[in-house]
Amino acid sequence: MSSDTPEVAQLLADDGFAGRLAELAGSLGRDRGEVAAEAAGYLREMGAMHSARAMSTWSRFTTWMFRAHELLVDEEAARRLQGLDQKYSLLFLFSHRSYLDGAAVPVALERHGLSPAFTLGGANLSFFPVNHLARRSGIVYIRRATQDQPVYRLTLRAYIGQLIRNRQNLSWSIEGGRTRTGKLRPPTYGILRYVVDAIDAAPDTEALIVPVSIVYEQLHEVGAMTAEARGARKRPEDVRWLVNFARLQANRLGRAYLDFGEPVPLRERMAELRDDQQGRHVVERIALDTSHCINQATPVTVTAVVCLAMLAADRALTLDGVLRTVAPMATYIASRRWPVAGAADLTDRDTVRRTLQELVASGVLTSYDGGTEPVWVIGPGQHLVAAFYRNTAIHLLVDRAIGELALVAAAEGGPDGLTTATEEALRLRDLLKFDFFFASRRNFAEQMALELAIIEPGDADTLREFTPDDARQWLQHGRPLVAPLVLRPFLDAYHLVADRLAAWEDETFDESRFLDECLRVGRQWALQGRLASEESVSLELFKPALQLARHRGLLDAGPPDLRQRRSDFRDELRESVRRATVVAELVRQPPG
Q: What global pTM score does this model have?
């Protein structure tokens, strides 16, 4: 009797799959039988199933691994999914801040009576003894670097297509790997592309994308991830790693929040985009939309807001000092009607004090109570960790921060403040599009108007036309001013990359050597005070800047004006940093 899982057995017996393998063998100049045998091996490597006995054991194991946190799930959204689960394949695309994320989704599905999902995870986590149990619990281990493995890619495409045809639920990280900064990473497209192809090939099949946000009050692994962002070597996953990771979970770290975004009918969305974009970049647009929806479903944690306050002050604060710093942020969050995790009151003294104490217990903050009253400050070497927690809420603040820099441009520009501000906001949107997820250009303008209305809730005529004097007044009155804290670390990192690129002399561009140079010069600039924060010295911030430079054609030698365009890129970033400095100076002044 065959031990192959249902999908594997179906594909091995499928003439269409055999035909595609034969075509590939011909194009590669290889023997058909050899390619078919290789594909069969890959299928059995991928093959997963849902065994009731194994899943029961796996559930106990993952619950034990999750013991550092109390998992709170969006109950109302989970109930809405129960009806959809009976009709469609549900595609749970989740944010990825921890190794625990892949366990959080199955736990949430089981708790709310939803069909189990096949969870797609990296093959780096496939090691004895947990891998055999995991496969029988629906974990599909897939390889990441497959550019030179055409047989593997075709096999994975076929396997995912079979899962969709069998109307199975799937779950995977839209980011591909864990974030090292706390905010969402750019999405990966491979799995989603295979799902879109499967939907196209099966006209009677529909699947719903369910954006899933998972955010933690604190995490044990943040210190290691921020070190990796500084260039430290990532420790390979093996049994010893798993034992150490499991031991850390014995120390309680508060709550984890899992929220479901609004489900998106995939076939319907594909048709809309093909009509709107003439079939171009459909998968990429769906991935970006999903990332935006994950952000929209992510609540603000008290930890994020307290870390934001401590980073903004960058000095010791009393409890009253923390509360004063948090207050305008709490007002802004309320004005945006953004959910707060656990429905916490961000201005409650006991809530903020408890969060400060929890951050001290984990080493992110230190406290001193030898004076007249206790004070708290970010611990030595902990700024990147604090920034990680702050960045879990950064998506809420990016539009606001861009609006502030746009107002600086308007205050310094010509008489038509609105036109200047709009142009600057759109420029910044394009500058930062590889780091953040924005609405379409049309909807983005509406977002900017909303931010302006929050700063200055006047009548509609005021918002349609304003002068440089109006822009200066709004900057003087507006609180909170967040651009220095939200965008300055990124703009500094981009400026550093642009500066090193302008100084690059070699004909060929060596990315690894270039990034190493950025790290070394970044440390120098940090010591010299040329960076507002050491947070900017990070590979995770350099890489999107480099992606932008590549997008603008600034990496490859050839064009005669390349040196000048690289210099212009550096000057553009220098000007953006200067405008962030203008806002920082206003922050240090009392509001007008």
A: 0.90
